[in-house]
Amino acid sequence: MQRQPGITIERRHTRARPSLATAARLWGALAGLGGLVHGIGEVVQGNVTTPGLFIPSWTIGPIADNLGGEPGLTVIPNFLVTGILTIALASLLIAVSARRAAAGPSGWALLALSTGMLLVGGGVGPPVIGLCAGVAALASRRARARQRKTGRPTEHRTLWPWLFWLALADTLFLVFGSLFAAFVLDVDVSNAFVVAFLAAVVLLPITIVAGNRAARKEPAT
Question: Fewer CB within 10 A of the terminal residue: the chain, N end or C end?
């Protein structure tokens, strides 16, 4: 009877840690917000033909001057149509990511919407973040399924929390920090954006693996 309070405290501490489901929600929402920025820039360019498969999302203003125009690709040969489709998919991505479910958002929905965004002008960075969000969501659901079968609490130390916050900081810079620098500070951060994006390509998958390993050792809830 005397050990029961200690067990309760340990479980509360475990639940306070960031989870893969939380990562999926945050990355998915950030991917959607980044996609909205691309879509708005394409709509602003109007009902004109795209120059080809690869397009600049913005051709005037701080994003064009300080972020290289946020390039992307589209299979739709019209800026207005591709922009509207991007905004629609990005909005759905945000909605799916915000869905409050114990196991997190639907990984397959995140993957499908992010792939669609990649093909219709949502840039490269936002879809990649969204795809990683989808993988994280699928890994989270599988980890919860394993927990229900085994549920063996194990003392462990992991880099997962540190990687979670590092990945979040990187994606926040890609979506918000770069825009702040471009608009408010009027600084060319196109090179820094590329470095942050390349870091995300490596960091987010590593974070998913670490989160999955940590989840295997968490007690079942």
Answer: N
